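Anyone have tokens for Conserved oligomeric Golgi complex subunit 4? Sequence:
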Amino acid sequence: MELDQPSIKFGTQEALSHVRALTDMGAMTRLLHECIAYQRSLDLDLDNLLSQRTDLDKQLLSLHRSSQVLDIVKADSDHVLGNVTSTCDLADHVSAKVRELDLAQSRVKSTLLRLDAIVERGNCLDGVKQALDAQDYESAAKYVQRFIQIDSEYRDSGSEPREQLMESKRQLESIVRKKLSEAVDQREHPNVLRFIRLYTPLGLETEGLQVYVGYLRKVIGMRSRLEFEHLVELMEQNNPMQTVNFVGCLTNLFKDIVLAVEDNDEILRGLCGEDGLFTPFVNFKRSVIRGVV
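Reply: yep, here.
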């Protein structure tokens, strides 16, 4: 049953002043009943609160225990945070050391490569001299080529070995040119191939291409000239039974040109790459037009 609200608010200074000012007995009686009813409602509220004390005590105890656990968790968290911070600092330190070691390793590797290059330069210098003495021109050319490759990478490795190598290189170039010229004059095709291949490691590709194309022109020219002279002899005989086939002669000439380029494809490409296949055609065409071949 819901109680009526009291006419005044008990427990306040205004209520006390109101009670002191009462003079009517009926009003006093009514206010007394209201006060008793208000006191009973307070008793009920107090009993209700007291009935919850056990649960509140349990909850307070649980909160207290939880606070202790939280303290432990906080302590562990602080410890983990300290470990993580220490680990991060250690990782940064290790990373810096790794970078320093990597830089040092790179410098050591570069130094070792330079030392190897110096040793290999010396070996190339000795090797080219020994190869020249043994007339092993192929090995000498390889030593020269390797020395030049090393020298281009390490320009500050000393000028005296470079000058000695250049002297040996000039000596080898002179020998190769002379041997190739003799082989061309004597039409020794195997020796021509042998010495023309040495122009690439010596860095004389353009010169080698010109010499070899000139050699091929000479070979083709000789065959064509013999065939042409045979046709001239037939013309001078004035024999109506024999046909002078100038078209066939010219056709054979161009066949010889194509076969020469195809058979020497490897050497021409080695001298000047793809351009090496174009140059012979240009030279042969000019020779045909001029009537040289």
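The chain has three domains: 13-51, 86-203, 204-293.
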